[in-house]
Here is the input.
Amino acid sequence: MRSKAPDSLLISRVMLLDDRKAFAALVERYQGALRRFFLHHTGGDAMLADDLAQETFLKCYYGIRQYKGLAGFSTWLYRIAYNLFLDYARTAKPAAPAEAIPEAAASVSTDERMDIAAALALLSTQERAVVSLFYIEDRTVEDVARILSMPQGTVKSHLARSRCKLADFLKKNGYETK
Amino acid sequence: MKRNKTLRDTSIDDRILRQYLHDKALQPGENPWFTPRLMNKLPPVAPTQPGRWVMTTVTLLAVVVCLVALCYIPSSAVNFSLAELLCVYIAIASVVALVAVQIVRLIKTYF
Here is the structure.
């Protein structure tokens, strides 16, 4: 059963008492969003996304005493996740599945169901992070800026650039809105 | 000088994109093993230290004794000899030191 206790209570229980049940409740609460975030960054590789999400939660557990509560817990968690993904991308670049996605994008016909991974693969890592946080996770520009450690203006310009790239992709693939 | 900027209406793009990304967003499948697997990766829970509990209990008892003594001294201090008074003050000083050690320990553990 999912815990209904507020984040702050669960966090303080983990911090002060090393309460594993409280930590498990936090994991249950945020694992879906975090796995989805990584899924969009790894081009749909579910196994890799799960591994990265696990690594993020481990980092969160070991560093939970550094959480000062200045931003929301999920913002802090996404920040760890994004930094972890950047580290991963730096070390495992040749094997990153995202490299293979542009080919997949070329092969998508207008009749086929469009692959979001192909669309996101057109974007840079930063743009992809901005788009997935803003459009898919419904975070505000302020939150996105805090997560990605960049000024709000930069987030807006990333959004504008991504919008153009994605709009082109949608037009080329004949995506029509109802 | 005022610049006459023609702004592009991005709200339509925004709407289309939001709809597209929400419709097609990748959703992670159910993974019931995610949390148990993660919990297994955490370090084992530190075993309870009996010494620590003993220390905490002794401190609490000492604090209670100290409080009782403090309430008792003012009424009967007149009848105390210098040696007795000295003993009481040494006991109070020890309790204060004990409590200080516990507080420092707590601070070191959690911050």
Summary: Chain A has nine helices and no strands. The first helix of chain A runs from residue 7 to 17.
